[in-house]
C-alpha cells in the first residue's frame, strides 16, 4: 500500500509539472464520469439477465410430472380406441397414476379393458366406435361382464364428459372393475356362440 501511495504522489507531481493542477482535476473528473457511465451501462445489461434466471426458477414446480410423450395416443379423442395392445394402455395408466393424473389413468384403463375384450374375441373392433359403445356391445355379448363394464363406462363418462374431478379412488375402482371383467372372461362365462360377435 505504501508503494502505491508513493507512486501516486510522484505521478501526480510529475503530471502537475507538465499539465498543471487544473488539467489534472479535469482528467480525474472525466475518468470518474467514464467509470460511472460504464458501471451504469453494465448494471443495465446484467440485472435483467439475473432477473430472467430467477423467474425461470420460480415458474418451475418443485415436482413437475414427466410428460407422457406419445403423439398418437395424446392427440386421440378420449373415447377412441387406438390400435395398440392392452399392455400399452396399462403401462400408460400406471405412469399417469404415478404422476397423480387420475383422469388420464382412468381413460387408459378403460381402453385396456376394451382392447382385451377385442383381443379375446368377445367383441369385434369397429373402427369409429367409442370405447363406451364397444364396452356396451361386450356387455350384451358376455352378460357376466355387463355390470363391471357399465360401472367403468360411468366412471369414465362422469370424468371426461361430466367434468367430475378424477381421484385416486376412481383409478382404484377402474382397476377392480378391470379385474372383474378379466375374471368373467377368463372363467369361461362368455358363451362360445357369442365370442367374436357384436
From TrEMBL:
Residue ranges occupied by any Protein-glutamine gamma-glutamyltransferase-like C-terminal domain in the UniProt entry: 110-177
Entry keywords, A to Z: Membrane, Transmembrane, Transmembrane helix
Regions that span the bilayer: 20-42
InterPro entries, per database record: TgpA-like_C (IPR025403)
Pfam families attached to this UniProt entry: DUF4129
Name assigned to this protein: Protein-glutamine gamma-glutamyltransferase-like C-terminal domain-containing protein
Organism encoding this protein: Asanoa hainanensis
Amino acid at each position: 500500500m505504501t508503494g502505491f501511495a508513493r507512486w501516486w504522489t510522484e505521478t501526480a507531481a510529475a503530471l502537475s509539472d507538465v499539465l498543471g493542477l487544473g488539467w489534472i482535476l479535469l482528467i480525474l473528473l472525466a475518468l470518474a464520469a467514464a467509470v460511472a457511465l460504464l458501471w451504469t451501462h453494465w448494471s443495465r445489461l446484467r440485472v435483467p439477465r439475473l432477473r430472467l434466471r430467477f423467474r425461470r426458477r420460480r415458474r418451475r414446480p418443485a415436482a413437475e410430472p414427466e410428460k407422457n410423450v406419445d403423439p398418437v395416443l395424446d392427440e386421440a379423442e378420449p373415447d377412441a380406441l387406438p390400435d395398440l395392445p392392452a399392455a400399452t394402455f396399462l403401462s400408460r395408466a400406471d405412469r399417469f397414476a404415478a404422476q397423480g393424473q387420475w383422469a388420464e389413468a382412468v381413460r387408459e384403463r378403460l381402453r385396456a379393458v376394451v382392447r382385451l375384450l377385442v383381443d379375446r374375441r368377445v367383441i369385434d373392433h369397429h373402427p369409429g366406435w367409442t370405447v363406451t359403445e364397444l364396452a356396451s356391445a361386450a356387455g350384451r355379448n358376455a352378460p357376466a361382464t355387463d355390470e363391471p363394464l357399465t360401472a367403468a363406462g360411468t366412471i369414465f363418462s362422469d370424468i371426461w364428459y361430466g367434468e367430475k374431478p378424477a381421484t385416486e379412488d376412481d383409478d382404484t375402482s377402474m382397476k377392480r372393475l378391470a379385474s372383474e371383467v378379466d375374471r368373467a372372461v377368463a372363467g369361461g362365462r362368455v358363451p362360445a356362440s357369442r365370442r367374436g360377435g357384436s
